[in-house]
Specification:
Layout (H helix, E strand, L loop, with lengths): L2 E5 L18 H4 L6 H4 L2 H6 L1 H15 L6 H5 L4 E4 L5 H4 L6 E2 L2 E8 L10 E2 L10 H8 L13 E5 L12 H10 L2 E5 L6 H13 L3 E4 L11 E4 L3 H8 L1
Parallel strand pairs: 1-2, 1-7, 2-3, 7-8, 8-9
Antiparallel strand pairs: 4-5, 4-6
Helix pairs in contact: 4-7
EC number: 2.3.1.286
Pfam families: SIR2
Protein name: protein acetyllysine N-acetyltransferase
């Protein structure tokens, strides 16, 4: 059976990384002056790159040395699309998973959306925390507080005011959804476009789905099974 797994922040919880909408999640902490919904935008990167990069640095720097957990290892040989940007599925050895929202351990040249660019390792370790804002602007090649297209660098993450492009392998992701005999959603709140896209395809194709979450979001689908458990409990049950 060709099973497609689509994962969200619940998968990385066992690695000590907060879920976005939980009590200690990234969506609740923000920065001193902006909410996360304001921070994670292309507009913020362009207009206030020092705040934008510092927020992403604190998100990533805190967790960049965390390792994959049992769930990531179980998924390492699976057909996988993840919403997570922590890169832990790659660390676990999955060489062909789709990071549909990007990976925070990588960056791209700052480009117009849709342009063909490559992602490569981001030099977060070169950032000097004693002079954080200046150092971040230097590392991402931003001068005069304003990033320049095709010259500056941008974290490889899909922002709220951006759209899915081939940089994020969107066509391949859609094809995997179409080809799947079953789709399993693990640790996701169904609050992003990619999960809605997968649900729509599953409905149109008559593809059975499973929803794995301690408090699963109930979805409109004629053939759905709910697994009220954590991602870790699920993979342990699978064996």
């Amino acid at each position: 059976m060709n099973t497609l797994y689509i994962t969200g922040a619940g998968v990385s919880a066992a690695s000590g990384i907060p879920t976005f909408r939980g009590e200690d999640g990234f969506w609740t902490i923000g920065s001193k002056n902006y909410t996360p919904m304001e921070m994670a935008t292309r507009a913020m990167y362009q207009n206030n790159p020092r705040e934008f990069l510092a927020w992403y640095y604190h998100r990533f720097a805190t967790y960049r040395h965390h390792g994959p957990n049992e769930v990531h290892h179980w998924l390492s040989d699976k057909n996988l699309i993840t919403q997570n940007i922590d890169g832990l599925d790659g660390k676990a050895g999955n060489t062909d998973y789709i990071a549909i929202h990007g990976r925070l351990d990588q960056m791209t040249v700052f480009h117009n959306q849709g342009d063909e660019v490559m992602a490569f390792n981001a030099p977060w370790d070169k950032v000097n925390e004693d002079n954080l804002h200046h150092s971040l602007l230097e590392v991402f090649n931003i001068s005069n507080e304003s990033p320049i297209v095709n010259q500056s660098f941008k974290p490889y993450v899909l922002l709220f005011d951006e759209y899915y492009t081939e940089l994020y392998r969107i066509s391949e992701a859609q094809q995997r959804m179409l080809d799947a005999n079953k789709i399993v959603f693990i640790g996701t709140s169904f609050s992003v476009n990619i999960t809605q896209m997968a649900l729509n395809i599953a409905r149109s194709q008559g593809t059975p789905i499973e929803v794995v979450d301690p408090e699963p979001t109930h979805v409109f689908h004629p053939n759905v099974t709910y697994k009220k458990m954590t991602a870790l409990e699920y993979v342990q049950q699978q064996g």
